[in-house]
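User: Run a structure prediction on this.
Assistant: Running it now.
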Amino acid sequence: MALRSLLLVAIFLFCIAQVSSDMEIEEQSTQLVKGPNRRLLPFLDCAGLCQVRCSLHSRPNVCTRACGTCCFRCKCVPPGTSGSRELCGKCYTDMTTHANRTKCP
C-alpha cells in the first residue's frame, strides 16, 4: 500500500515538473511586443530583412542603418525593396528624422 501511494506521488511530481519546463521553454521562444499591435512574435532578423529591403537603394549603407533602427523599434520591416510602408503600421510610417523627413525606408 505504501509503495503504491509513493509511486502515485512520484508520477504526480514528474507531471508537474514536465508542465513547468514546457512553460519555461515557451516563454523563452517568444517576445512580447508593446504598442497598438500587441502580439507574441518569434525572433525577428532585422539585419537580414533590412539587407533585402535596401538591396536596390542608391545608398544601401545609409538605408540599412535607418531600416535597422526602425526594425528594432517597430519590430517590422515591410516586404519588397520599396513601398508597402503602411503594412508595418503607424510606428513605421510616422517615424521622422530631425529634419522632419520620413526615417524608415
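Helices lie at 2-29, 46-53, 60-74, 90-94.
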